[in-house]
From TrEMBL:
The keyword Methyltransferase does not apply. GO terms for biological process: cellular response to phosphate starvation. This is histidine kinase. Its EC number is 2.7.13.3. Pfam families: HATPase_c. It is found in: Cell membrane. Gene3D superfamilies: Histidine kinase-like ATPase, C-terminal domain. GO terms for molecular function: phosphoprotein phosphatase activity; phosphorelay sensor kinase activity. Keywords: Cell membrane, Kinase, Membrane, Transferase, Transmembrane, Transmembrane helix, Two-component regulatory system. One of its GO terms (cellular component) is plasma membrane.
Length: 315
């Protein structure tokens, strides 16, 4: 630590040495009594030694505090302008670190809650498959429906984790929204047949966007429309240039739930009542569409159905 001390304050000792030599040369050039110089030098070097001991003690104490401090209040003895500046930087760094740590802890808690909720949702189709197997009543259409649910829950979880870690994973290309919607309907043909749902797709929109994430967003909306539709219901998908409308005549959404439907983990009355919601679908749909520069709005009334609108963001 002595080397560090002289590294920090070495310039002052060098300055003192140069001044001492200058005074000595002055005495020699003007033939002044060297005894006076010796007395002055002795006094000055004695004072310098005491100052050096004091400054070294303060330097060593400051170094130990900086190496071992935990709380910012331990830096209250730092009063020099440069020390105050470093203290401000340290405070800012600790606040940033604490904020990042809190964010990470919150994210970990959210993931843990998500896994618990996701596990609970997976139990429903698994229990249905297990019951069918035990009673030897394996209806192929019902089995396919439960497998589709399992696949959808798994895709939602994997896409959530992927999107939360890398939100700019996009590959833009020209898409036919009608083709995407039609392929999703084909995927859900079994639930539609079992619930006697009719689906109508009209119009088209040549959209330049990311196919994977547009498909994901539309899948979540259509999946909700199917899940919450009544028997013999109807789902209409109207597509036009710069607009997608997906409407159903299902059970609808409570008015007090509408402002919160895009919140992470929010399931609302329907999710609790029917045990079909994970609280991720609409949250992720909103996040994805925002990243794709698209807006989503939802209008709904109880027992009259729900309308979902997707449009480009207004500039």
């Amino acid at each position: 630590m002595i080397r560090q001390f002289f590294k920090e304050y070495g310039i002052w000792y060098l300055t003192y040495a140069i001044l001492t030599i200058s005074f000595f040369l002055t005495f020699m050039l003007f033939h002044l009594p060297i005894a006076y110089f010796k007395v002055s030098f002795s006094v000055n070097i004695t004072i310098l030694i005491f100052i050096t001991i004091w400054q070294y003690y303060k330097f060593k104490r400051k170094q130990l505090i900086l190496q071992q401090f935990i709380y910012v209040k331990e830096l209250n003895d730092f009063h020099l302008p440069s020390e105050q500046a470093f203290k401000a930087i340290i405070c800012q760094q600790k606040e940033t670190h604490a904020s990042e740590l809190l964010k990470l802890q919150t994210q970990m808690e959210n993931i843990q809650n998500l896994i618990k909720m996701w596990s609970h949702q997976m139990k429903v189709p698994l229990s249905a498959l297990s019951l069918m197997a035990q009673t030897d009543q394996l209806d192929p259409k019902e089995v396919e429906q439960q497998l589709n649910r399992l696949q959808n829950y798994l895709d939602t979880l994997l896409n959530y984790l992927k999107f939360s870690q890398n939100k700019d994973d996009f590959r833009f290309e020209k898409l036919s929204v009608k083709n995407i919607a039609t392929s999703i309907i084909k995927k859900y043909r079994i639930p539609c047949l079992l619930n006697h749902l009719s689906v109508e797709v009209t119009g088209d929109w040549e959209l330049k966007s990311d196919k994977k994430w547009v498909t994901f967003a539309l899948t979540q909306i259509i999946d909700n429309a199917i899940k919450y539709s009544k028997d013999n219901g109807k789902i209409i998908i109207r597509i036009s240039q710069a607009s997608i409308e997906i409407s159903d005549d299902g059970i609808g959404i409570l008015e007090e739930d509408l402002p919160r439907i895009f919140e992470e983990g929010f399931t609302g009355f329907n999710g609790h009542e029917h045990q079909k919601a994970t609280g991720l679908g609409l949250y992720m749909t909103k996040q994805v569409l925002d990243s794709l520069n698209l807006d989503i709005t939802i209008h709904s009334q109880i027992d009259q159905g729900t309308q979902v609108f997707i449009t480009p963001k207004k500039r």
